[in-house]
C-alpha cells in the first residue's frame, strides 16, 4: 500500500508498525522520496484488510498521526522468511 498525505515526520510509520503487529502481520513501513509511506504487509487476508481500513479510516478512531489523503493498494506475491514488522 502507498499512503499519501501528511504521513512523514509525524510518527505514522511507528503507528503503522504497532497496528500491524497487533494484527499479526509481517513486513515494513518506509518513507518514499515523494513524501508517501510504503506499507508492505503480509499475513491473513482479513488482517491485511483490517490494516488497510485503519489506514483509510477518517476520522481515525485509533489516534493515527498525520493526515491520510489516499491509499493505493498494489497486491504482491508473499515472500518467505519475513519475520516481524519494521520501520525503514
Q: What distinguishing features does this structure have?
A:
alpha+beta; 5-stranded mixed β-sheet; 88 residues; globular; 26% helix; Alpha-Beta Plaits
Describe the structure.
The protein has a 5-stranded mixed beta sheet. It has one domain (2-87): 2-Layer Sandwich (Alpha-Beta Plaits). With 88 residues, the protein is of the alpha+beta class. The model has no long low-confidence stretch (mean pLDDT 97). It is globular. The two termini are 15 Å apart. β2 (26-31) and β3 (37-42) form a beta hairpin. 26% of the residues lie in helices and 30% in strands.
Secondary structure layout:
Layout: E1 2-6, H1 12-22, E2 26-31, E3 37-42, H2 45-56, E4 67-72, E5 85-87
Concise summary:
The protein is α+β, with helices and mostly antiparallel strands and 88 residues long.
Strand tally is 5
As residue ranges, the low-confidence spans are none
How many whole angstroms does the radius of gyration measure? 12 Å
Structure class: alpha+beta
CATH architecture designation: 2-Layer Sandwich
Adjacency order of strands in the biggest sheet: 4-1-3-2-5
Give the ordered list of helices and strands: EHEEHEE
What quaternary form is this?
single chain
- Supply the number of helical segments: 2
**CATH topology (fold) name:** Alpha-Beta Plaits
How many domains make up the coordinates? 1
Provide the residue-averaged pLDDT: 97
- The share of residues in helices is 25-40%
Give the strand content: 25-35%
